[in-house]
Amino acid sequence: MHDVIFPPSAPGLARPAGSWGLLPGRALSLHPRSRGRLTLVQGRAWLTVSAAGQASTDMVLHAGEGVVLPARSHAVLEAWPQPGDVPALAWQWAAPP
């Protein structure tokens, strides 16, 4: 998994401080234990979210956009390549206010 996701401290991947990174064309399955906000801080992503008793939802997120994920949901985050020399996807996770 070291070539797919990069923690905030990983060297060599240009992204905002305190964010996690994902290489273009890669996907990551998220299973949050508690409710939280996923915010894109760099790049563009396709996100599919499914939660118990609800239909799956697909959405495209751009830098600056975010979504609150319910506890015990399942989300698949895919880094979408962008035209030109655009850096990898970067996101942050935080408890919602």
Question: What would you note in describing this structure?
Answer:
By secondary structure, this protein is mostly beta strands. Helices cover 0% and strands 46% of the residues. It has no helices and nine strands. The protein has strands at residues 5-6, 20-22, 27-30, 36-42, 44-50, 57-62, 66-69, 74-79, 89-94. The strands form two sheets. The protein has a five-stranded antiparallel beta sheet with strand order 1-2-9-4-7, with no helix packed on it. A four-stranded antiparallel beta sheet has the order 3-8-5-6, with no helix packed on it. The chain is globular, with a radius of gyration of 13 Å. Mean pLDDT is 81; it is low at 1-12.
Which characteristics define this entry?
globular, four-stranded antiparallel beta sheet, 0% helix, 9 strands, mainly beta, single chain
- Strands ordered across the widest β-sheet: 1-2-9-4-7
Q: What structural class do helix, strand and pairing data support?
A: mainly beta
Tell me about the biggest sheet? Answer: 5 strands, antiparallel
Helix content: under 10%
Elements, N to C (H/E): EEEEEEEEE
Distance between the termini: 31 Å
What integer is the average pLDDT? 81
Low-confidence stretches are 1-12
> Would you report the number of β strands?
9
> Which geometry do the CA atoms define?
globular
The number of helical segments is: 0
> Approximately how much beta-strand content do the residues carry?
over 45%
Q: Indicate the radius of gyration in whole angstroms.
A: 13 Å
